[in-house]
């Protein structure tokens, strides 16, 4: 792994990738401890600006990362709250209606920890001074402590908007080859945290036969503030096995076996050949021979070359200048697929015909046996390795891809 070092300058989003084959990394002394600032309480009093300010209730939001605390308070005892309704802007339906006191209202909104879609609500507040509408849109926290895949979470399309992305020293976040953009208002990582494109286990799984290995994809990570240290591990998946070689047709037999030798016998006249009943002697010199075994079948065709491995993927980084943040990375292109199996060998040749026998040489010869089936063809060649990706950055006005 080649290591490169850069000063902590502004990293802006890179929209294209350089293609080289060597690995690389950006290094700096890791930050051991990460301090994550608390989120201040937000106040919203922008509903119906044309109404007198003291008539409008004040809405306050406290974001706990996985829940919201909402409070609505009138500014004067001359204004009383009659009712409050909360609507989900994504579904445009009322989610809940809660009881209120005369001058205040409180609401708590919980969330599924695996749902990263932002909270997006509209509160309709009916008071003795009229109706007031407030919009609340808040982003959630994603805290990773241990191995986790991005597939485990629900988010909008290929984009994740977060308030805070926090990776502990035990965190291993895998994008599983997705092309995804993550924007975090605050990104904090402890020394030991890892973001990977494909997990080691996933990368080792071969693609379907004759298919290119899985790509590591592209991760676009943007942070408004960033601190700590993270290691990016880019991996491509193993390519699929090559196709099976061509098998020999059953009609393409090996050479036929040779015919067995015929029997050989002799006759001889004993005594006076002119006599009425001369003696005849007969003897067998060679019995008929069995037919020869057929020839071996043809060898099957060579297997296909394995499919190429997947590209390791890219990371596109953006965070402010002078941030106490640094990273390293490794690039591991996917291995090429195994060569395909060789084709099946053809059938052996037919055995030879038996030699002819007779009464003198009485042994009945047998036909030759069929030849052995041909060998399976040789295995194909291993596929090519995928391309090595890297981290692309824009420092000031200079664009650079580090590999």
How does this model look, in words?
The protein is mainly beta and 403 residues long. It folds into two domains: 11-38 and 141-243 and 304-340 and 381-402, no CATH class; 42-138, Immunoglobulin-like (Sandwich). The protein has one helix and 22 strands. Strands 1, 10, 11, 12, 13, 14, 15, 16, 19, 20, 21 and 22 form a twelve-stranded mixed β-sheet that branches. It has a four-stranded antiparallel β-sheet with strand order 2-3-4-7, with no helix packed on it. The radius of gyration is 41 Å and the shape is rod-shaped.
Layout of secondary structure:
Elements lengths: L10 E2 L29 E3 L13 E6 L3 E7 L7 E8 L4 E6 L5 E7 L8 E9 L2 E9 L1 E5 L2 E3 L9 E9 L4 E3 L5 E10 L4 E3 L3 H4 L14 E18 L28 E7 L8 E8 L27 E5 L6 E8 L58 E5 L2 E5 L1
Parallel strand pairs: 10-12, 11-13, 12-14, 13-15, 14-16, 15-16, 16-19, 16-20, 19-21
Antiparallel strand pairs: 1-21, 2-3, 3-4, 4-7, 5-6, 5-8, 8-9, 17-18, 21-22
């Amino acid at each position: 792994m080649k290591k490169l070092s850069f000063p902590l300058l502004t990293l802006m989003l890179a929209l294209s990738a350089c293609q080289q084959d060597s690995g690389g990394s950006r290094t700096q002394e890791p930050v051991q401890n990460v301090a994550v600032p608390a989120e201040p309480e937000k106040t919203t009093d922008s509903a119906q600006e044309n109404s007198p300010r003291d008539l409008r209730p004040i809405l306050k939001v406290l974001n706990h990362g996985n829940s919201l605390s909402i409070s609505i308070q009138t500014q004067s005892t001359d204004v009383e709250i009659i009712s409050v309704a909360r609507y989900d802007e994504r579904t445009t339906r009322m989610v809940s209606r809660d009881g209120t006191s005369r001058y205040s209202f409180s609401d708590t909104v919980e969330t599924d920890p695996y749902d990263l879609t932002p909270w997006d609500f509209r509160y309709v507040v009916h008071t003795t001074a009229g109706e007031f509408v407030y919009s609340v849109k808040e982003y959630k926290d994603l805290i990773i402590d241990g191995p986790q895949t991005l597939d485990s979470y629900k988010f909008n399309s290929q984009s994740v908007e977060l308030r805070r992305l926090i990776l502990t020293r035990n965190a291993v976040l895998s994008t599983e080859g997705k092309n995804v953009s993550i924007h975090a208002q605050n990104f904090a990582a402890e020394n030991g945290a890892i973001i990977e494109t494909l997990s080691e286990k996933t990368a080792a799984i071969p693609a379907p036969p004759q298919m290119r290995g899985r790509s590591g994809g592209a991760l676009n990570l943007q942070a408004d503030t960033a601190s700590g240290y993270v290691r990016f591990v880019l991996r491509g998946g193993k390519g699929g096995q090559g196709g099976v070689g061509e098998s020999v047709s059953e009609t393409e037999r090996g050479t036929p076996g040779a015919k067995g030798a015929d029997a050989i016998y002799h006759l001889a006249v004993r005594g006076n050949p002119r006599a009425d009943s001369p003696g005849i002697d007969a003897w067998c010199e060679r019995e008929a021979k069995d037919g020869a075994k057929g020839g071996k079948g043809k060898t099957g065709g060579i297997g296909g070359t394995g499919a190429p491995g997947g590209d390791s993927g890219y990371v596109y980084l953006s965070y402010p200048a002078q941030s106490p943040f640094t990273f390293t990375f490794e690039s591991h292109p996917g291995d090429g697929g195994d060569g395909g199996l060789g084709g099946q060998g053809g059938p052996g040749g037919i055995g030879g015909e038996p030699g002819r026998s007779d009464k003198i040489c009485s042994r009945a010869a047998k036909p030759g046996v069929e030849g052995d089936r041909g060998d399976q063809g040789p295995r194909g060649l291993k596929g090519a390795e995928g391309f090595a990706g890297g981290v692309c950055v824009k420092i000031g006005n200079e664009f650079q891809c580090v590999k």
